[in-house]
Amino acid sequence: MNATVHGSVLRRNVLKGISAQIVSAADKVDAGLPTAITVSNVIAVGTSHGLVLVFDQNQALRLCLGTTATGAEYGAVSALSINHDCTRLLCGFAKGQITMWDLANGKLLRTITDAHPPGTAILHVKFTDHPALAVCNDSGGSVFELSFRRVMGMRTCESRCLFSGSKGEVCCVEPLHAGLELKDHPISQYSLLAMASLTKILLIGLKPSLKVWMTFPYGKTDPASVPLLAWQFVAVQKTINPVLAFCRGDTIHFLLVKKDESGTIHVIKQRQLQLNCDLISLSWINPRTLVLMDSTEKLRVVDRPSQEELETVDMAELQLVYNSSHFKSLATGGNVSQALALVGEKTCYQSVCSYAGQIMYLGTKSVHIMTLRNWRERVDHLLKQEKFMEALSLAWSFHEGTAKAVLGQSFYPAKRKGVVADKMVEILLQYVDRSLKKCPEQGKIQVMEQHFQDIVPVMVDYCLLLQRTDLLFNQIYPRLVENSVARGVFLESLEPYILSERIGCLTAAVMRDLLSYFQENGMMDSVEGCLVHMDITNLDIQQVVQMCWDNQLYDAMIYVFNSGMNDYISPMEHVVMGNKMLVYISCCLAGRAYPLGDIPEDLVPQVKNQVFEFLIRLHSVEAAQEEEVYPYIRTLLHFDTREFLNVLALTFEDFKNDKQALEYQQRIVDILLKVMVDNSDFTPSQVGCLFTFLARQLAKPDNTLFVNRKLFDQVLEFLCSPDDDSRHTERQQVLLELLQVGGVVQFDEERLLDLAEKAEFYQICEFMYDRKHLYNKIVDCYLKDPLRKEELFNYIHNILSMPGYSSEEKQLVWVKALQHVKVSQTRLQMICPLEHTPGRESSGFRKLISDPNLIRPFSLSNFAQLGPDLHELLVDLQCQFSPQQVTAFLKTSQDYRLEEAIQITEKHKLHEATAYLLEKKGDVQGAFEVLLQSDEVQSLLRRVEEALHDIIALCQRSSHGLNQQQREKHWCIMNLAKCSVSPDCFSLSSALKELTMKVLNSMSSFIAPPAIIQRILQDPVYGKGKLAEIQGLILGMLETFNYEQTLLETTTNLLNSDLHWSLSHLRKAVSRGLHPRQYHCNICLQQYKRRQESEEEIIIFSCGHLYHCQCLQRKEVGVLSERQYSWSCYKCTSNQGSRPADRSSEESSRSRSTSLAQVSRSHFTINMLSEATLDAQQTQAWDHFRTLYRGPSRLAVLTELTHSHGNERPGLSNPVHPGTGSIYHSENFQLKLSPPPLVEE
Question: Which of 156, 337, 657, 1101 has the most CB atoms lying inside 10 A of its own CB?
């Protein structure tokens, strides 16, 4: 079905009579354009020339109030209001006057000119429910109460200001009107008035005395948005109370006003309504529905409870009248605020009026009225547009009571549903006729099928929803039969409803057509699915059974036999055996109908007996001579032994006190044994399933079955002594399952264990040993079983680590494991839990771990908690079998002793591991010498370079903790060692020079340049050469020196410049004069004395606050520190949420205060402190200045510069000729200097 639709909710009519007379009056009597409208029992329209046209309900002109001369004097009519009994009319004018008219005779009763300040236009004038009370609102934003009296025959009017425009301009007022039916409501006695200003909503009561009940701010809104108000009495929780809807912009708020039992008035905010448009008009059309107009002049009908938009109507053709000129007060010179004039651009308060479920809209040449359509009109409106699906959907929502903005329906649900159902039947019949007439006569058959596929399911749906299958099969179907395509689509569409059991019974004609259609089109699966879900009492049983046999519809056939003839045996005699038959037998024995439902309770025992009798038949009905006995049980066993036995097991569960059923149970067991044990056609698995089934039954406490124990022995021999070994695993698994379900009690355990060992059934042996708690023998089972060798250590791990085993049992398993552990690569995984076992420190354990064959790649976590001697033993074994992993193990383990570990690595000549241990010990010299020994293979340059890299890294790490002499000794020893290498070992002498440069370059950060130059001159490689060969090294050192000297000088200059700049700005900041914001003390609020003779001390803070010194002392905001006070601003510290006294310790520790202060006499002489020190305020200024500089320090920038140009930096290993390759001549070299921070003056 389609989603819920709402149709056309509003009926829109043009009041042609009134519209024509408005245009005529403008032409004939110069009435001008319409400006305002109000509605009661009459309709009054004001014009721009001061006239008021009053029409009756038949749109006839009754009165024409005022004259054009009056209009010239008073201006245009800007507001209208009719009292509750429709006897008086208030008329407000653009120039500020107010008149009252008698609507019975058109007599002018009052002219009010002094009710509000002159020079302002009347924006609103409203009667209240009190007959002598009204309110008006002028363009100055003020609101006045008008009290009408008649004293001594004189009509008077007293005015009282309710809200002054100087406190916020009100641009909309709305009194609460209760109406005659609610005149006794407890809220009506208060004469509530809602006022909307530019910033908030005010709710006040005029009676018995003026009282403000609530104010509510709008929040952030568009300044050009129009404030809107509307009252409505709404039923909330079975009580009727007034609700005020108000908005400014796109959010509507709701306030519920109610009076509780104690007499207290409550104003409760309710859920707001969020829209996506700017509103200019807000009206209630009934207690649940709002009619809104947005700034594009589109009406939006919104259901308030669901906040769903029901309809949108474009009102652009109306040419709505706006009240902008009155809000701008153009008739009095335009003396209004810009904010009010901006709001007035889109105001139309006087052009929209609601009364008794009707809303009227005033256009420049016409008047439109909006009313709600009743439910029939809304449905008929869709039918006229031939939108049948939408009409049905809308009608169904009326039927269920879920429709919105409903009008004209009965309050009683039964009556409502009956009326709507009749309407829906009418629509459905029209829909059928229309679908047949509109059917495409030409084109492809697929087009016609699609046409009816879109229509027929909708009809079926609604007929079923209305529970009118008679309508569907007796009226709609006969009409569709006229079209063959429609007939086929209808019959096909019934299938899903039948399968979901929404349709359970068809008429004979429809059922016959359905079966014939499906059979003709080869849809036999659909036939079977439908048959098993339907009442077949109306069918021709013989025809249906024949059709099922012909098409092998076994489910349908079983259903027909069971449901139609109460015959549960015939299906089993004729249906081919299979899973279907097993399920059927299971259902019959369990009392369930096949394929769904339940067997009638009175037939359940009879059906069970019939099924058992069928199963134990000696021969079938039409048995051949060669047929074996018990054919049905034999066939089911051959088909699926396990499932058939499961069916029997489930059935036996229900056999408690039924004597006959127990007899059937014993009889079936005897037949099973006779069929399977004496027959070689069954596999070991099938035989095992039988005896597993029997073992389960015999293990029950209430067992009544008897089975010869010799049969179990015979089965044991059969499983353990096979003729061939092709089913070894299967036999073992079957026997294990038999034992696990309790069959062990049927055997001699010793004989069983002996047969299992001979048959190599090691899982059976494990099962038996586990029963006897001989866990150590289970180790042998794992070792002998080639399929489970890898699981041995998991088993040992579980035995030794899990609770529930005695220490003696664990010890036996442990000893057995030590005797046989020679199995897999993961054997050492068992060592982890052995720390908690008895004998862990025994010689057996040491023997185990000392076995070289056990050393394989292993995880360090397995040895995390062993003693140091065992760790050293592991190190020794690793040195022998995994030398490449020794260093990594030493770095991650901490449980060995250094001296013993060093001896082990030295014994195996692992120089890298020995050097690591010596360095860890603190013997850097010894580690250095060991690493030098690693260069024994000097024929390979790669190994020399690797050794040299390790030595340089060692020297660099250790140089930081040595003095200059020790550094030179280390580096020179390394240099000598390098020089001791004969140049003949290298094919090119340049390779040795390159190594020398790398060493000297690394030395330059730790050794003084003179010592390095001396070492170069002593180098035998260069000592015999010319000066030109060492020129590059010396020049590189000089270039490095010049580079670092320049960086040092630049850094020093920058830091000095920064310090001078910072101190100068700090001095300016702390010596700047302060100007107070006010001329009074912020504590006592007394102005300080300006007279010269006054000696009163005042304190001014940098925040602009001023205090008397005595006032601050009383508030305890000063902190005494060594002979002077450190003041803090009392007002600023109070705003920060802490007392000054509580902050004194924090201020003294952080050396900062709230603001800078200057202490002066009243004649503005500053008290200078005796000492030139920074007080707390100056310290705070210094901290504030430092926080302005958020970037990295310049020293950090220069350090980064040296790193970033590290590859370009000249050095000993990268000599550069001066004048050509200097870094100062490089185009890419630049110093990265950050600019000074910016400080606001």
Answer: 1101
Of 402-406, 440-444, 1169-1173, give the range with the top mean pLDDT. 402-406
Q: Which residues of 329-351 are buried (b: 16+ CB within 10 A; e: fewer)?
A: bbbbeeebeebbbbbbebbbbbb
Dist. CA 1129–CA 420, nearest whole Å: 78
456-465 and 413-437 are packed helices; what angle lies between their axes, rounded to 10 degrees?
160
* DSSP code of residue 316: G
Q: Which residues pair with 43 in a beta bridge?
A: 39, 55
Q: Is residue 1072 scored above 90 in pLDDT? A: no
- Lowest mean pLDDT of 219-228, 675-684, 1043-1052, 1190-1199, name the range: 1190-1199
Q: Considering Cα of 439, then 441, then 445, then 447, what sign does the dihedral take?
A: negative
Distance CA 289, CA 303 (A): 5
In this structure, is the dihedral angle defined by the CA atoms of residues 1160, 1161, 1166 and 1171, taken in order, positive or negative?
negative
Range of lowest pLDDT (174-183, 526-535, 831-840)? 831-840
Q: Which two tokens stand for residue 1076?
A: 């107070």
- The per-residue pLDDT for range 169-184, each reduced to its tens digit, is 999 999 999 888 888 8
DSSP string, 382-428: HHHTT-HHHHHHHHHHHHHT--SS--S--SSHHHHHHHHHHHHHHHH
One-letter amino acid at 300 equals R
Contact 558, 594 (CB under 8 A): yes
Closest CA to 895 of 864, 923, 874: 864
CA distance 287 to 309: 15
Which residues are within 8 A (CB) of 199 and not within 5 positions of it... i.e. 6 or more apart?
Answer: 168, 217, 218
CB 634 within 8 A of CB 627: no
* Separation of alpha carbons 1085 and 394, rounded Å: 72
Q: Give the C-alpha separation, 361 to 370, whole Å.
A: 8
φ/ψ of 37, rounded to 5, equals -145, 145
> What is the torsional sign of CA 398, 400, 405, 411?
positive
Distances in whole angstroms, Cα of residue 134 to Cα of each of 206, 210, 232: 10, 14, 19
b/e code 160-193 from CB counts within 10 Å (16+ = b): eebbebeeebbbbbbbbbbeeeeeebebbbbbbb
Q: How far apart, in whole angstroms, are the C-alpha atoms of residue 282 and residue 1000?
A: 90
* Confidence label for 455 from pLDDT (cuts 50, 70 and 90): very high
pLDDT band at 1175 (very low <50, low <70, confident <90, very high): low
Residues in the chain: 1241
CA dihedral over 905, 909, 912, 916, signed as positive or negative? positive
1116 sits in the region (left: phi over 0; alpha: psi -120 to 50; else beta) called left
What integer pLDDT is reported at residue 340 of this predicted model?
92
- For β-strands 133-138 and 143-151, DSSP reports them as antiparallel
For 269-308, the pLDDT digits (tens) are: 999 999 999 999 999 999 999 999 999 999 999 999 999 9
Q: Give Cβ neighbours of residue 723 (< 8 Å, ≥ 6 apart).
A: none
- The answer to pTM > 0.90 is no
Distance CA 134, CA 326 (A): 20
Distance CA 783, CA 774 (A): 15
Cα(531)–Cα(516) distance, integer angstroms = 13
Q: Cα separation of 917 and 899, whole Å? A: 9
Nearest partner of 105 among 65, 74, 148, judged by Cα: 65
Q: What is the pLDDT of residues 227-271, one digit of tens each?
A: 999 999 998 888 899 999 999 999 999 999 998 888 888 999 999
In terms of average pLDDT, the best of 550-554, 697-701, 844-848, 1073-1077 is: 550-554
- Measure the CA–CA gap between 822 and 819, rounded to whole angstroms: 9
Q: Are strands 200-205 and 192-197 parallel, antiparallel or unpaired?
A: antiparallel
